[in-house]
Amino acid sequence: MEFISKELDRYCNDHTSSECEILSALNHETHTSVLNPRMISGNLQGQFLTMISRMLQPKCILEIGTYTGYSAICLAKGLPASGVLHTIDVNEELEDMTTRYFKKAGFEHQIVQHIGDASLVIPNMDLELDLVFIDADKKNYPIYFDLLVDKIKPGGWIIADNVLWSGKVIEELDSSDKSTKALLEYNKKVQDHPGVENLLLPLRDGLMICRKI
Ligand SMILES: C[S@@+](CC[C@H](N)C(=O)[O-])C[C@H]1O[C@@H](n2cnc3c(N)ncnc32)[C@H](O)[C@@H]1O
After folding, report:
1. 129-134 and 152-161 as β-strands: parallel, antiparallel, unpaired?
2. Is the CB of 46 inside a 6 Å radius of any atom of ligand 1?
3. For 87, which of 61, 66, 144, 154 could close a Cys bridge (C-beta 3.0–4.6 Å)?
């Protein structure tokens, strides 16, 4: 399900700053040589992530779901000089490509890549997080929230992508659809949690933004 018409989407893109050369090359290479290029954040969401990161100037960011590194670079643009972004992906095949682009973008010393299942990697991370971007396997979103909530600083933020799941969150639930079930659980968990304030923003496939009080 598209939430806005193609024409409005084009209008929004036409009135949004363009990708820098490096992100444009990364976007192109992802679309020409990597499986499932639809997974990339793209310019509209990428500019949103950059703006949020520039506003917050986070010292420590965690991303779950590196893929080809597009959103990691967008988020890293807001890091102060001493800031670090940790990014986790279970797929090791894209590591050479992401390393190449992190270097091109000048973030090779500020982005730390972790290869592995995020639900196993996160418990071993001793981090105090200012900002988290969750953009990986949907079935684990509720687990990620539970693992992360104590690692976020008061006043820190979690942004989770795809929480509207092409509109499936308001359709009749197919009991075998684990992703939709987990996203419904994630959205309810955040909504009911007394320690956060939250906004479900219908940008692209839905971003749940929450701030730890
Ligand atoms: C939607 S893509 C991420 C897109 C990226 N954030 C961007 O905007 O360009 C999801 C990624 O999550 C990774 N992933 C899936 N399950 C995972 C898990 N359990 N732990 C870590 N990464 C996982 C996939 O390999 C994939 O690269």
Report:
1. parallel
2. no
3. 66
Q: To the nearest whole number, what is the mean pLDDT of the chain?
A: 97
- Ligand 1 atom with the smallest distance to the CA of 68 is 9
Question: What pLDDT, in 10s, does the model give residues 62-91?
Answer: 999 999 999 999 999 999 999 999 999 999
* Ligand 1 site, residue 121, Cβ cutoff 6 A: no
Residue 72 lies in a domain: yes
Q: Which domain holds residue 41?
A: 6-154
- Nearest atom in ligand 1 to the alpha carbon of residue 118 is 20
**117 Cβ closer than 6 Å to some ligand 1 atom:** yes
For residue 145, give the 3-state DSSP assignment.
helix
What CATH number is attached to the domain comprising 137? 3.40.50.150
Q: Residue 1 pLDDT > 80, yes or no?
A: no
Q: Is residue 51 part of a domain?
A: yes
Work out the number of other CB atoms within 10 angstroms of the CB of residue 106.
11
Residue 171 inside a domain? The answer is no
Per the domain annotation, does 32 fall within a domain?
yes
Give the residue, out of 39, 113, 207, with the most ligand 1 atoms within 8 A of its beta carbon, to mutate for a pocket test. Answer: 39
What is the predicted pLDDT for the residue at 9? Answer: 93
Number of domains forming the structure of the chain = 1
Q: Tell me the one-letter amino acid at 47.
A: Q
User: Number of C-alpha atoms within 13 angstroms, CB side, residue 138?
Assistant: 23
Nearest residue to 76 via CA among 37, 20, 141: 20
